[in-house]
Structures are given as C-alpha cells and as structure tokens.
Design brief:
By secondary structure, the protein is an alpha/beta fold. The chain has four domains: 105 residues, GMP Synthetase, Chain A, domain 3, CATH 3.30.300; 153 residues, P-loop containing nucleotide triphosphate hydrolases (Rossmann fold, 3-Layer(aba) Sandwich); 67 residues, Helicase, Ruva Protein, domain 3 (Orthogonal Bundle); 93 residues, DnaA protein, C-terminal DNA-binding domain (Chromosomal Replication Initiator Protein Dnaa, Chain: A, Orthogonal Bundle), CATH 1.10.1750.10. The chain is 58% helix and 9% strand. The protein has a five-stranded parallel β-sheet, with helices on both faces. A hairpin with a 2-residue loop joins β1 and β2. The longest helix has 20 residues. The protein is flat. The protein starts with a helix and ends with a helix.
C-alpha cells in the first residue's frame, strides 16, 4: 500500500508542476484525468482515459513528464502509461474529488468570486514591442491601484492579450488583499437588467460598489444600450470617486465606441493604450513558449512565425493542428509535415489580402509623403521616417521578405529593410505619436482592402 500512496503523492506534485509548464488546453485534454496506480521497482504506472491519450502522452510529452517526475522525486523513474479499465473508475473519481477539495481549500472566497482565470498571469505573458506599453501600465496599476492610470483602458483586436493583462492585474491585487471582480460588459448588462426586473437594484449596487478593483472586458458591447450605460456610469463614478481601480478593455479607441459623453470623458481622463498584432520576433517568442513541452525544431517555429497570423489564438491553433496531423498520419513532426498541416489556413480565396500597393498608398495618405520620396534615397528626417514606416508595415502586415520589400522600394538592400524594421520596433516602445500614426495607417488599410 505504501508504494501506491507514494505514487499518488509524486504524481499529484508532478501534475501541479506540469500545470504551470504546459498550455492549459493540452493539460486539460491529456493530463487532467490521469491517475497514479503504483510505484514499484522504479516504475511509475499512470492510468489514462483512452488509448489515444496514452499514446499522446508517450509520444509527445514523455520527456517533459519524465523531467518533472525527476524534479519532484529526485529519482530516475520509468513512467509507464496504461489505459484504465472499469476497476479504475472509482480510483479516478476519488482523485477528482481530492483535487477539487484541495483546490477549494487553497482558493479564498475572493478568488472564487472574482471570475479570474488562474492561467492568465504576468509570469506567462510574452512581452513584445506590440504590447510593451500596455504591459508596463498593467504592472504599474497592480503596484499602485487607484493612484495612477485610473481608469486604464486597453484596446486591441481579438486574441492579442488584453484579457490576459486584465486577469494578471486581478491576480496581483487579490494577493494584496483587494476585492476584485472581472466580468464582460455583456455579463454586466445581464446582471443590471435582471436586478431591475427583480427589484434588486440595491443588491446590485452593493455588489459592485464595495469592490476595490473592477475589470470590465469588451466595453463595446454596451454601445447603443442607453439603460445599461446609465447603470455603468453610476457604478464607474462611485468607484472612481472612492479611488478604486478600474480597468476596461475594448476593440477600438474609446472615442470611436458609441458611449455616453460622460463615460467617454471619464475614460479619457485616465490612460488609454493599444496592443498591436505581434511582430515576427514576438510571434517566434510566443511559439517557443507555447511549444516548450514539445520537441519541435526551431526551423518549424521560424516558418510559423513568418505566417500572417492575426492573433495569438491562431498561433496556438497552428501548433495543435500540426500535432494532430502528425499523430493522424503517424509521422514525426518535420518542416514538410508542419507546412502541409497548416497550408489550408492561408489559402482561403474569400479572405481579402493586403497587397503592397494598398499599404504604400495608406502610408502616403497618413504621412503626407509622396511615393516618390518614400522610394527615393532622400535622407531628411520626415522622408526617412515615412520610408521606415512603409518598410515596417510591408514586413509585418504585408508579410513580405526583406528582399522583396527592398525591391519594391527602389531596389534597397535587404539589410536596410531589416534595420528600418528594428528601428521602428524600438521607437514604438516609447513614442506614442508614432504608435498612433501606425494605428491610423492600419485602420485605413483595414477599410481599403
């Protein structure tokens, strides 16, 4: 009996470690419902829920799991995956109950009621030039809630990390004893309307106005909803007057969302920052982080980073697609296998493609610098900046090689293009005017294609 208990304790600790290292979808799918059976002669027997799960763990995650087990036990233990039979059902159910009890004991009422995702923390947020300012502001808010950048408004397209940052702020402030609530504006709307219909508006007010931190995601969903905006304004105003921290996110600048003037005015009184799509370097960093538990060659990750992904969710999806395809055909992941697995992701004939002419014309319109000057070798400050912006956008949004960009812009050397791209990325970290200009160009591109 003792070896079994030892197996359980080792495996429980191993799962805790793996949960931090492996992306949530993979942990939930392959590891969450595994159960330790025994440890004998340095062989740890682990039961899985299906033959496919056992095969996946053996083929894809074995080395990662072995390292984790060794780190926990400080022993060289052989891990054997088996498919559980009916006699293990009781054992599996007991394990689930134990896990739930442990989770409940560790989680405070504040954490349970905050609606925070435990996987979204500052520790696993990948920093890049596209999100560096928003990340810095989020960290500052978590250090000095209600005193600086209040409210904080973060906007971006879907899947770029604004929700991740909001949850990260929440976790940090819960650790400081603050009462935190995260919700979408849609949830806020539903709760507000329900309180009116049931005559419980006082309960609604008490719930929200006793908070230390309010995190509201996707504020654009209350545009045109006058009654909801009325309730939101009074909630916002009450918390703001008390010096409580408010963080809001949306999909575009606040002045472009149809909000009441008084709400827009409150938002403009704080700090408003955007998150841009990740550049190639950041995409590569994200891919390395997301695939750290797998044996995927760097040339495959570099190939993926060059693809025109719109957001981080698409990056994660491509890795899962490659893994599934590799397993289905029974071949090791290679560059050829990876390229074939994702080829249909970028062959949609309906999808509107951004061509180089569109990008250049939009740069010209926003900067006021002619195409001739952009393609020329003029070195005055204004022409040089417009040229660098064009090179940056052709690389990032047009997904062109540095050589192709150089050829289009008057036969420039590819090294000149790379230098320009890096110069823009560096300047974007601190220059809000440049960020706003590039955002305006991208918005114009979006409506032009």
């Amino acid at each position: 009996m003792e070896p079994t208990n030892n197996a359980k304790s080792i495996w429980s600790a191993t799962l805790g470690l793996l949960e931090l290292e492996i992306p949530r979808p993979n942990f939930e799918t392959w590891l969450k419902d595994t159960v330790a059976d025994s440890l004998k002669d340095n062989q740890l027997i682990i039961y899985t829920t299906s033959p496919f799960a056992a095969e996946m763990l053996e083929k894809r995650l074995h080395s990662t799991i072995s390292r984790a087990v060794h780190k926990i036990s400080d022993q060289d233990i052989e891990i054997i995956f088996k498919v559980k039979n009916d006699s293990q059902n009781k054992l599996l159910n007991n394990k689930k109950n134990v896990r739930n009890n442990i989770s409940n004991n560790k989680t405070s009422n504040n954490e349970e009621e905050s609606n925070l995702n435990k996987y979204f923390t500052f520790n696993n947020f990948i920093r890049g030039t596209n999100n560096e300012l928003a990340l810095a502001a989020a960290i500052k808010v978590s250090e000095e809630p209600g005193k600086i950048y209040n409210p904080l408004y973060i906007y971006s397209d879907v899947g770029l990390g604004k929700t991740h940052l909001m949850h990260s702020i929440g976790h940090e402030l819960i650790n400081k004893g603050k009462k935190v609530l995260y919700l979408t504006s849609e949830t806020f709307t539903n709760e507000y309307i329900k309180s009116i219909r049931q005559g419980k508006t006082s309960t609604f007010r008490k719930k929200f106005r006793n908070l230390d931190v309010l995190l509201v995601d996707d504020i654009q969903f209350i545009s045109r909803k006058e009654q909801t905006q009325e309730g939101f304004f009074h909630t916002f105003n009450d918390l703001h007057i008390k010096g409580k921290q408010i963080v809001i996110s949306g999909d575009e600048p606040s002045n472009k969302i149809r909000l009441q003037e008084r709400i827009s005015s409150r938002l403009s009184g704080g700090l408003e920052l955007d998150i841009q799509p990740p550049d190639i370097e950041t995409r590569l960093s994200i891919l390395k982080h997301k695939s750290s538990y797998l044996e995927i060659d760097n040339d495959i990750l570099e190939m993926l980073s060059e693809k025109p992904y719109r957001n981080i969710r698409d990056l994660e999806g491509s890795i899962n697609r490659i893994i599934a395809y590799s397993d289905l055909i029974g071949k090791k992941i290679s560059l050829d296998v990876a390229e074939y697995a994702i080829k249909n992701l970028f062959n949609n004939p309906i999808e509107r493609k951004i061509n180089s002419d569109t990008i250049i014309k939009c740069v010209v319109k926003i900067t006021g610098i002619s195409i001739e000057k952009i393609k020329s070798n003029k070195r005055d400050k204004v022409s040089t900046m417009a040229r660098r912006i064009t090179m940056y956008l052709l690389r990032e949004d047009g997904h062109m090689t540095s050589s192709a960009v150089g050829e289009i812009l008057g036969g420039k050397d590819h090294s000149t293009v790379i230098y320009a791209q890096k110069a823009i990325e560096k300047t974007l970290k601190t220059d809000l005017v440049l960020r706003e200009k590039i955002t305006s160009i991208r918005e114009l591109i979006k409506v032009s294609v």
